[in-house]
Amino acid sequence: LASLLANGFCANTVHFGSGGGLLQKVNRDSLSVAFKCCAMYVGDKCFSIGKDPIAGGKKSYPGNPPVIRDAAGVLRNRGKYNEKGEMLEAHPMSNEEFRTGVKGDVLRTVFKDGKMVYDQ
């Protein structure tokens, strides 16, 4: 908590744990928010972050995914899909693409280094 305060975060806006058993009965659904992490950039190096639990069903693809509108107008992560539209393989951004952008990517950086950089 001290590190968050030292970096300018307000303690009232930080939630530790978002499981179903919180005493305040607050969860990410009641707050209409979820934060996910798929890649971490340190300098010019990218570290992909993903999960593939043994129990299954909650797999996430590692790497920073560009979101592009397909020919039918559907927004999808860039990747390989089967005929049912299920993702088989993600094609995340390279370091260079992250720096320069990907044509057609609709994702926007909203917060960067603790500051809001894009507001609708």
From TrEMBL:
Judging by the UniProt lineage, the source's domain of life is Eukaryota
| Assigned keywords, A-Z | Glycosyltransferase, Pyridine nucleotide biosynthesis, Transferase
Which residues belong to any copy of the Nicotinate/nicotinamide phosphoribosyltransferase domain?
A: 6-63
One GO MF annotation is: nicotinamide phosphoribosyltransferase activity
Pathway field? Cofactor biosynthesis; NAD(+) biosynthesis
Gene Ontology biological-process annotations: NAD+ biosynthetic process
Q: Does S-adenosyl-L-methionine appear among the keywords?
A: no
Q: Name one Pfam family in it.
A: NAPRTase
Q: Does the keyword Glycosyltransferase apply?
A: yes
InterPro entries xrefs: N/Namide_PRibTrfase, Nicotinamide_PRibTrfase, Nicotinate_pribotase-like_C
Under the heading PANTHER family, the entry gives: NICOTINAMIDE PHOSPHORIBOSYLTRANSFERASE
Q: Which family does it belong to?
A: Belongs to the NAPRTase family.
**Name of the protein described by the UniProt record:** Nicotinate/nicotinamide phosphoribosyltransferase domain-containing protein
> What is the organism of origin for this protein?
Strombidinopsis acuminata
